[in-house]
Design brief:
Low-confidence stretches: none
Helix content: 40-55%
Largest sheet: 2 strands, antiparallel
Number of strands: 8
Strand order of the largest sheet: 1-4
Number of helices: 8
């Protein structure tokens, strides 16, 4: 939404309607897509959403607590959206791809650039959710898709590594303040309490009240598939499940 005014958004909607009208004559199925588009535009142009995106309404003390940088203010916006009933919010921070090559930062420089604002923003978000009584219903998950190699490459960077990495869970009724599992001294391989991506997914679904191993969706061929095949909610976070 950066730099995009509501007038420009409305102009884009009118252009989209014109294009869709041409498609509709050839593809009747596009009507269902149009309904979703209309719902999305209604959301973006509603008064409550306009209010939510106006983070200038927040006290300076709150904005400063999150950090006056893109990730910090985005995390603050996430809290404002949650307050207004938005159920899923994604906040992105980048670039973490610190190979040290091909215009990528080396690991040390990249870490010094990104870790402090990330730490500040997530801590402020968790504290703010607790202070406002939103912590029980709101689950915060901070993660990437893989870890980094335990050894640096010749350019001072670290490459992709899927054998061991960390995920942060906070709020959502989870048992916080603990470290679950451990790796070897090099951070290369898991040595205690391995947790798979399916376990992470099952934990998120559990917070939503969904039993991922008993809930199916159809794949592209129409066959039912469980949301999670083998994963289980992380018991150290959610407690024992009956």
């Amino acid at each position: 939404m950066s730099g995009l005014t509501f007038d420009r958004l409305e102009s884009r909607r009118e252009l989209l309607k014109t294009i869709d009208e041409v498609h509709r004559r050839a593809e009747p199925q596009i009507q269902s897509v149009n309904e979703h588009q209309a719902a999305a535009f209604d959301l973006l142009t509603s008064a409550s959403v306009k209010d939510a995106f106006d983070i200038s309404a927040e006290p300076d003390s709150i904005r400063d607590a999150y950090g006056r940088h893109t990730f910090g203010q985005s995390a603050l916006l996430a809290r404002r959206l949650v307050e207004r009933g938005v159920t899923f919010v994604t906040v992105n921070t980048q670039p973490w791809d610190h190979h040290g090559t091909a215009n990528r930062l080396p690991t040390a420089e990249g870490a010094n650039l990104l870790i402090p604002p990330t730490d500040k923003a997530i801590a402020a978000l968790v504290r703010d959710l607790i202070d406002r009584g939103l912590d029980k219903k709101t689950l915060v998950v901070a993660m990437g898709e893989f870890g980094r190699t335990p050894k640096m490459n010749d350019a001072g960077g670290r490459d992709h590594w899927g054998h061991a990495f960390s995920v942060l869970f906070a709020c959502g009724g989870m048992k916080m303040g603990q470290t679950i599992g451990s790796s070897d001294a090099h951070g290369a391989y898991v040595t205690e309490r391995p947790i798979d991506p399916e376990d992470v997914a099952a934990t998120v679904y559990h917070h939503l009240g969904i039993n991922a191993r008993q809930t199916t969706i159809n794949d592209q061929s129409g066959r039912p598939r469980y949301l999670v095949e083998k994963g289980e909610p992380i018991r150290e976070l959610v407690g024992e499940i009956a």
